[in-house]
Structure formats: structure tokens, C-alpha cells
Request: fold
Amino acid sequence: MAGIISKLKSGVTNNNPPPLESNPIMQYFEVGKEISTAGHGLLWRVHDAYRKSDGKECSVFIFDKRIAEKVFKVKRKETMLDRIRGCVTLLEKMRHPKMLQIIHSIEEGHNTIAFACEPVLASLHNILAWHESIVIPGAQPPVMPHPISLGPPSSHQQQFNAPTQRPPYAKEYYFLDIELRYGLLQVVEALHYLHYTTHQIHRNVCPQVIIVTKRGTWKLFGLEFIENIVGSDPTEMMTVAPWSIKVAKISQPNLDFLAPEVQTNGQCNILSDMFSLGLVICAIFNNGKALLQANNNPMLYMKQIEYLDHQLNAVLPRVPAALQEAVQRLLSRDPHPRPTTQLLPLIKYFKCQSEPAIHAMQFLDVITMKDPNQKTNFYRGTLIDALPYIPKKLRWQHVWPALQLEVRTAEVLAAVLQPIIWLTNEASQDEFTHYVMPTLKNLMNSPKSIQASVTILENLHIILKKCQKDEINNEIMPLLYNALDNNTNQIQTASLIAIQNVSDYIDDKALQSIVLAKIKIVLEKNQNDVKIISLILGFYEKILLRLERGHILDHVIPTLLAMRLTDPDIVNRVVILYKAMLVERKFSLSTGVMATKMIPSLAPQTVNTSLNVDQFTNLMEILYDMLDNIDKHQRYRLRIDGISLPSPDKHRQLRHQMSTDNMHAPPFNIPNLRVEQRKTSSAEDMARKNSISGPSGTGSVGGFRNTGIGQWFFGSSNSTNNDNNFLRVANAFPNRRLSDNTLMTPKIRIAPSCASSPGGTPGGSTGLPARRHSSIGPQERRGSAVNLSPPTGYQFRGRGGSGSSLSVPSASQCVGGSMPNTSSSVPFLLSSSMQSIRSRRPSACLSNSQGSGLLQQLSSGMYQLFSGR
Reply:
């Protein structure tokens, strides 16, 4: 029976296929040549096609009804055709990204059934058939099923040695490792959707129903034998009919990938699909050869199942190590150890270094279901990070078609351009010409959002590296020139960035006649925009040497003069440009331009407090250079006219000599002087404290101060000669200020041992009133305890016998009639007052000598008053 069916089928398929003009699908699609076969029994013929309405690429599946007419009676024929129609209808209803995507539903003609779907490369069976037919030198031969037939062993050897012929529609295609990982994961996800979402069992998982699309994705097809799960437990067994030779093979699942429990017990569950998946994995890694090859014979199938474990052990070394354990469990004859679609994606084989790339490609498969925000985040982040891990083959096969579709969406266009620019940078010249440039041409000639235009302009230099010269002049440069005329600030800024990056691609004629004028207009519109000014300066820095003198005078200098120089960096860059113009001889800037344009624009910046030292130095150097040029030019002209001028160096030297900064005065020292810091306490304050806290026997200082001698002693506001006893520095330099001639030192006291000191009394035993600085008013006259002579025997000594002038004398140390040194701020204070301040307790020595100390002070003052010193 099976042989008769095969003959009928071969007889039909060898005839010419039925004409497609009678099928209504021809109204909507332009159908091309047949490229592969797919579906159960490879009954569907796959044609390349494209949609007439929008030119979208697709594939058209065509089924020849005459196959069913020859095999089945009328009633069974309709049952078979209903299954075929139901498969397509169910796929269209599911619209799951891991199932084959239907873009046009079934159309029926007199002899054909057709539908359109996403572009298809081939079925997995077509690709594995090519792998099975080729012989790779040095490669291990595939593991053959055992036994190969039910005949004697000699017939087994003959079949094993028979030459392998390439079957029709075998597709030459090599899988990358990441393609196999991603493809198997897609099939697992498709089965997971069936098992746990729609609660169905596929029952016919085999290479014939796994479709490889032109994007490299694997899609599940062939739902003719699908069974609904009745109970709530998907692992619960269901009764199904075993494979029988009494039924046409196109009406039964593929026997070579059937689970053993179906054939032995007539039962199946979701784990039966997992057994079939395990056989598919072994066929992939066994050079396309299946471990079971029963030739539609159930008895041979049962024999080969008995030897399956042995064959599996021979194949396992060819399977990746991370997948071997899973394959062993998938091909277990007992259904319970087999992993489900929930557990299988968690194995290490799918969790590897390529995982970011796999996740990115998975997201691209469902990109049409995402909202614009999710798409934007994916294109700008996830995809850019994953692209280096995606092989170049899959970049153009899988990623690029998705990007082409998204370019038409204005909401995400700016984000989609990011991976497009990345691919452009990594593409070869042929890849750019074939894939990228046609899309970019359409994009440049169509309306775009501001952000999309900015993205293109900022990355224009990457695109130009791959373009031909005529494409640059005819396609790219007009876009750039139009962007310079745009009134949007973002586009103007991006165009200035672009024109700076692509300046090497602009010819001199366009640069001088078009670009310079447009740059000048852009600045006039944005005189206060620091970023635009900075970009214009950067552009001038790059193209300055390509310009001539006329362009400098007509465009560059007027543009620089129009800039508002407020930012220090801008000022410094303008200075550098001016310096480059002065250095370049071909520009030969005139002194008139320097004097009337360049110097007046830079001179106000000399007082710009924002400039740092280096920037200010550069500014002054360029100003000096221009002034020197003007000076030399003018002197040369005047010399020609016969007018003599003194050398500028002479005047500069004279001015330098007259500067007060370079005057050197001889050192001025007063001999035998000691200077101490001025204290904050005054004699009046100290006297007031003593009058309050001192012993009752001490007289009040206030009454004494009101007397004539007291006024002389403490200072009087009625003094007619306030300049007496002032010590001044000789006025040696007439050009110095008065404050420079006055000593700003504390009070000075003349030592009694110095006969040459002014106001001193040779041989006198009493001290003199302290002289004060000229800046101290008459009301601030104070005494000074600074001793200007070395320590003598008349000074008081402390407990340790030191010669300190600040120690408090004891009664036994009072010698002679000299005034004791007490405090550095109150020189003529009474001994009892000092004792009350320093020790805060009465002292017998000081109280006994109180009267003698006062008389000494009075006698010394009277002597000086009447002697006129």
C-alpha cells in the first residue's frame, strides 16, 4: 500500500505543476520561482514572491490538490484538505512570533490551495538534506540507523555503501553555533506556547515542519495532526492511533520522529513532542542523518528503537557538551525523565556568552508588539550592546530586515538610526552599497523628525567614509547645505558638527563659495550662543590654511568681529586664530585691518577678569605683535617720507628708568634701638584700675592728671606744639610719599646710657618720656618700656637672676634712683600700681617705696621741663 501511494505521489509530482493563474492569490502577489518544499510529506511548494500593493517581500505556499485526488476517495480527500486548510487557519489565528507568520490567508483555485507568509529560506529538512549529501574531507561519517533494513546483514552493508544523491531542493546553508542555539530555543518556545497556552500537542515535530526564514529564525509549521489536551494536566496520557501501513502516510505523522509510546501503547502527551525534538537535535549534529529511518515500516521502526540507546551513545560526542545530558533525557523511552519546555531553556547550552545576542534577536522577533518607548530603549541600549556578539552573517540576515521595517516609523526613527550607524561603520564596501545605501537614500529624501535629522548629521562622517564621490556630491552634501539654512537651533548645531567632521570631503570651490557664506549667516542668527560660536571657531581652525586672503577679509574676520567675546575659551581661540593669520604669509594682513578691526575687538578683553594667566598672556602677546607690526610699518613709511623719529627702544628704556618700581634707596638704620609691639592698654586705663583696686593709701591718679605736670606727663589736648619729641626719618627721597617717610613702628625709648640719643641726659639717673611716632595723635601719648640699651646693674632682676626687663622687682633688689621697668605698655606707672596688677596682693616693699618712686618721677619730669630738653 505504501509503495502504491509513493508511486501515485511521484507520478503526480513529476508532472508539470498546475498553473497558478487560476488561483486568486495571483491578484495580490507577484509569484516567482520555486525555492524549496516544506510541510508534512514536503507537500507544500514554496515560491519567492512580493506583494503588489507595497512591494513587501514574502513567500507563497502552494498545495496541489491532485495529490489528494489520486490517493483518497472523495470523502477522505475532503477530510485531508480540511486538515490542510485548518493548519493555515490556526496559524493565522495564533499569530505567535515563533510560529510561521501568515500575511495573506488561504486562496483556493481549481487545482491549488495557496497562502502567503513571511519570507522563507527553506525547511530544515531541505538544509539537512544538503548536509547529508555532501562529503567533508576528514570529517566523521554520520551514525547510521541500526538495523538499516529487515533483510539479511549483507543487504544492510549494500545500503550503507550506496552512493548518496542530492535530493531535489536541497538547500546549501551552513549553520553558525549561535544560529543552532537560537533556532532550537525558538522551537522550544513554540512548543511551550502550544503545550501551556493553547493546551495542544503538535504530534509531528520533525525537520519538515520547521521552517527557516530568510532572517535566520526557525518557525514551527505543520499543525495538521494537532491534538487538544483534555485534562488539566498536560502530562496526562491521551489515546491516539498508532502508525499503520493501512493508512496513507500523508495522513499520519512522520514515523522517523515518532515517540515510542505512540507506536507501542497508542498514547501520547506533551512529552511525546519532546522525544521528537530530541531526534531532531541528533539529526542536526549527525550531518543531517536521523537516528531512525524506518522507511514507513512500523516493524523496522520498533527494531531501530531497541538499538536507539547504542546509536545515541555514538552521536553524543558530536553534540555540544552542555546539551548532551538534555538529549539523553529527551530520548528516554520512558516519558517521565524527559524535560518539559519549561525546563529545557534553563540548561547551560542556552545560557552562554551568546546570551545577550540571543536575547536581542528574540526581542527583534516580537518588536512589532512593543510600544515606542520599549523600542527606543532597545535600539539605543540593548541592541547596540549586543551587536558586537552577533555574527556579521546574522547582522544582515536577521537584524537588518527588522531595522528596515522600523525606519518607516517616525516615532522611533531617531532610535533606529543608532544601530544603523553602527552597522554602517562595521560594514564592508559591498555590504554598505547593497544593504545600507538604498535605505539611506530614501531616508534622506523623506521628511524626518528633528532628532532623526540631528542623528544623521552628527554621524555623517561615518556614512561618507563608505560613499562614492558622486553619492557624496549628489546625495549627502545637499542635505548638509540645507541643514545649515534650517532655523532650528538643534539642526544648526548638528550641521556645524557635521561640517567640521566632513570638511575634508568638501571641495575648495564649494567651501569658498557656499559654506563660508552660510556659516556667516548662522553666526548672525546666533551671536550669543556659545556652543555655535565654538563650533564655528573649530571649523575655521580646520579649514584656515585652505583659504585665500580675500576669504579671510570678506568672511572670516567679519565673522570673528561679530562674535561676542564673553567666554574665556572663546577669547583664547579667537586669539589663536588671529595669531595663525599673522603667521601665515599668504594672508599678509594690513596694518589697517589690525589697527581698525582686530585690536579694537581684543583690547577690551585685557580687563576681562575671567581670563586665566595663560589666556591673558596669549592675548597680550598677540596685541604686542600687532602693535609691533604697526610700529615697524609706520616707521618704515615715515622714514621713506623723510621724517625721523627717535627709536622706540630709547623711550621704553627711559620710561623704565623713571619707574618707581626700580628705585633703590640706601638702608636707613637707627643705632642702638629696640622696637617692641604696641600694647592695647593705655596708661589712663591702668591708672584707673589701680585707683579702684589698689590700696587705700595710694593717691588718685585723676587729680594728678588735671595738674599742669600731669597734663605734661599724660599728654594734653591744649598743647601748642604737638610735633615735639617726634622721631622722623630723614626725607631723603623727594618722590616718596609722606607715609613712606614716617616710621610706622611702636614707641621708642632712648636708653639712658646713649649720650648721643636726642633728649638724653648724660649721666642722668632717670628715664625720659617716651617719644612717639608721628602718626600718633597727642591724645594717644603713652610711655614705652622698651629699653634701648643693654642690661645694666641699675635694672631689676628676677628670681632666677636673669636680666629681663619685664620681671617684678623685690624689696631687696631696689637699687639707686632709676625707674624700674614694669610693663611694656605703661612705663611710668607707680610701683604699687604694678604690684596690684601683677600679684593682686599688697607688698611691703612696694608700699614703703611708693613715696620715693613718685618723687623720682616728679623730679625727673621737672628737670626736663625747666632745662628745655
About this structure: The chain is about 50% helix and 5% strand.
